[in-house]
């Protein structure tokens, strides 16, 4: 319910801001129509594929809204820009779509690649989210390039009389900021590059401090009932986490051997020695054997042990089978070829779980090694909550990093190919790298851990950064081909594309800011990082990119 309320608030706020900036009810309706059609399309796909409505679907909506709003606002803002130049409707249409159509196609492809990279993460729900969201991005482009021109042609937009003053004020503020950036860029391009280089070094140092860790209870604030329940389980009961160790052998009666049960006891003691602050309870068939042995010896304390004689152990197991068989079969198979050890622990994160597996597995192998002379096929596997989540979260985190790295490489190659220039292609990579560096650098310095939710900002970073860069460089190249000098091309691009990029960024920021108050800290931090990503992408394309073009004087 909280996510739905935040999503509804975000949509309303973004629509109000769109109307305020663009100043046309028709433009607002068209934006809503294209956005809602994309959402309905994704919901239809989700229905046919059987994808349940959960948190991941809301994230998919966010990714699609980023692409849909970016495409639509670029077109509409371009229309208003040329309309303000005094051009007629058909001239405006030709100018807008001759420049924007190819840029929108390239941005949609690169954004879709960034989102499709989620498909390579070894978790089905994220794979499906990446697949549906990527399709939604391409669907948004098709609607923008086919449906939107029809709507504009049938009902040419224009600001309403009541809103003309607000519209002028809003766009005047945006245009005045862009003019300031233009003048600053002309005067101090080398200083701008030096400043960005210094900040980048600081961010790289922050990136080296990032930890990959996911702790379920840390997703909720201290006053949350969920977190309080987990902490109560840890403090007053046996803990909220569990680790299972599965012991297997192909020899019948293996776990009727006192030597084998003594090894299980050694494993229990090793766990309690290595992790005294985490392990709260340990359960195997040894618990029943020792308790039965103690009862047969007048409850003497020293009789709470595993007997060394095989015949005595066999008698104890017969007694247990006759009296407490249901609990016994939870710990050992009928033929005594398999057994389990159930370990209860206090809450641990994925990082600590991985550390436990890496440090405990060698000890486990050392303890069971002597048994393999008698039972060559004897093996032990760590599983359960700790083992499973440790492997899942670690695999997700590293596979996300690898898949986004691959996506970024593919996008870089596409940029080089599309622009037909190594210089321009490599130049386009730098402003795309800066927002990612900003996000992960600030995460390192602020102590935000890299987990499943925070890593999902990467597709947004890639999508927004590449979108803005492609729009800027596409217009820049067109201006150069029309005979403008480098200075004239940069300035005309800043005035035309800068307005669209700024308007798009403001609308996207209004979307993400509504999710910051959400009680789920994972979603809240995701929203904060998305805000940082969008804003840093704006700075990179309006400040860093023009400065690089001026300093290196790149034409092709």
Fold and architecture overview:
The protein is mainly α and 556 residues long. It has a 4-stranded antiparallel β-sheet with strand order 2-3-1-4. Helix 15 packs antiparallel against helix 18 and helix 16 runs antiparallel to helix 17. The longest helix is centred in the last third of the chain and has 36 residues.
Quickly describe the structure.
By secondary structure, the protein is mainly α. Helices cover 72% and strands 5% of the residues.
What is the percentage of strand-forming residues?
A: under 5%
Uncertain segments are 159-167
Task: Note the gap between the termini.
Answer: 52 Å
Mean pLDDT: 82
User: Tally the helices: what do you get?
Assistant: 18
Q: Largest sheet, order of strands side by side?
A: 2-3-1-4
What is the gyration radius calculated from CA atoms? 31 Å
- H and E string: HHHHHHHHEHEHHHEHEHHHHH
Q: Which structural category do the helix and sheet elements fall into?
A: mainly alpha
Helix content: over 70%
Secondary structure tally: strands = 4
Furnish the topology, listing elements before pairings.
Elements: H1 2-22, H2 25-49, H3 55-84, H4 89-116, H5 124-154, H6 164-187, H7 189-207, H8 225-236, E1 241-248, H9 258-274, E2 279-283, H10 285-295, H11 310-323, H12 325-329, E3 338-345, H13 350-368, E4 379-383, H14 384-419, H15 422-446, H16 457-481, H17 486-513, H18 521-552
Antiparallel strand pairs: 1-3, 1-4, 2-3
List keywords for this structure.
single chain; 556 residues; mainly alpha; 4-stranded antiparallel beta sheet; 4 strands; 72% helix
